Every structure is written in C-alpha cells, then in structure tokens.
Amino acid sequence: FSRNRNPRQQRRSPTPSRDPSTGPSSPSSPNPTSGRISPANANGKDQKKPLYLCSPFADAALVKGNFKTIVMLPKYVDIMEWVAVNIYDFFTNLNEFYGVIATETCTAQTCPNMSAGPFVRRSLNYLWTNRDGKQVTLPAPTYIDYVVTSIQQLIDDENVFPHNANHTFHPTFPSTVKTIYRQLLRVYAHLYHAHFDVILHLRAEPHFNSMFAHFLAFGREYQLLEVRDIKGEVNSPTVGVGQLWERWKERGIL
Predict the structure, then answer these.
(1) Do 241 and 116 touch, CB atoms closer than 8 A?
(2) Across-strand partners of 135?
(3) Which residues are bridge partners to 125 per DSSP?
(4) Is residue 201 marked as binding?
(5) Where are the domains of the chain?
(6) Which CATH architecture fits 68-251?
(7) Does the annotation list 193 as a binding residue?
(8) Residue 133 Rama label (left phi>0; alpha psi -120 to 50; beta)
(9) Is residue 170 a known part of a binding site?
(10) How high is the mean pLDDT in each 10-residue block of the chain (254 residues)?
(11) DSSP at 136
(12) Whole-model pTM?
C-alpha cells in the first residue's frame, strides 16, 4: 500500500458547477422526456413498499458474505490513509454512478426537494446549510451538485487530504470525513428513493447494493456514520434506507 498518492484529477459533477456556499441558483431545465412523478407530489401520504425493499431486488449483490471482512484495516497501513483512500473511492464511484443514472431523470421538475422518502417524513427531507448558516430547501440535482463540488474541493486540498507521506493529516480530519460521509449517505438515500426504477431498468441493482453495503460497513467500522443518520429519528420507526440496513444486518451482510 503506497502512501505516495498522485494528485487527484478533477472530477466533473453531472450538473453545472456552482459555488456550494452561495445558496441555490437557477433551477435546472426540466427534461421533457421524463415521465417520472416527483416523490414530493405524493399528496402527503406514504406510498407502498419501495422497490428497493422488495425481493429479489433488496438481496441482489455482487459480493456474498459479510462486508466486515473487506473493510478491516490492512496490516502496516495507517488508519488515516486507509480512511482517506476509501473516502476517495466511495466519492468517485458514487459520483460516476449518479452521472450515469440520474443526469436525465433527476431534475428540478422530477425532484424539487432533496428527499429520501415521503415528504411528510421530516427526517427524510434534507436541507442545505448556506454560507450564512441558514438551512434552505434545494432541488435534489442542485443539492447533489453542491455536495459533489464541496467534497471535491476538500479532496483537492492537501491540507485536508495529503497527497504524499511528507504531509500529516490535520487534527480535524475525523470530523471532516464524518461530514463527507453524512452527505454521501444522503445521495445514496435519494437514489434509492427516487431513482431505483432506473437502476432496475439498467439491471444495476446488484452493483449498487454492493456499493452501498460496502459504504455502510466501512462507515460503521470506523465510526463515520451515526445510527440515527441511517435509521432516522430516535424512538421512531426505522425509515428509508434504514430498513435496508436492518434487513442486511439480519442476513449477516453487515
């Protein structure tokens, strides 16, 4: 395992680049070919069981067995390096997956809110905190573009993600990667909620499920994810992808 990593190449977001700290900009143009219905237009009622929780889709995977075996820290590898490299891979893979799946289907018209479940579930509707510290509602593609842009800026900053062994990790690195993890989780949750039909159409559910299970297992192994971020509000029924988390735990995947 080499500590001398090459500088990261700039990754392009699927939507036009914007400054994530300045708040929302003009909404994306609607896709006239899209016939999808926005999850936010569900008349405030819970819908039937999501496809991603139905068999056989929920159990489709490329990797069999428990994901804990592939997230263990390799011998002689610095834990900060291990976390940094995996964060980069999770971000890159999810960004590219989103670019393939949702560029045409995730628009301001189909996804006017960044959500991961019925609009009435407050814990499943995500707000963006702008430069003034105010939380604002954004269309999902705008929110995700802000996430991609902000994470890319962090990865490109050698003070946050050192590119070689001559630089040490900043003391705030653990808190930084926790924030990154929370935002990536929200992107995963939105794709499961709003675009799993596209994933099924492409027959990509085994790949996507394995990516997400790996992401969850790694996050829990290194305490990057809070259970409440996955399962929802404390002392409330598990919602959204939290149900997938519980299903996979019962089956020994996580």
Answers:
(1) yes
(2) 129
(3) 115
(4) no
(5) 68-251
(6) Up-down Bundle (1.20)
(7) no
(8) left
(9) no
(10) 41 44 41 38 54 93 88 94 96 93 88 82 83 92 96 94 84 95 96 94 94 96 88 75 92 91
(11) E
(12) 0.80
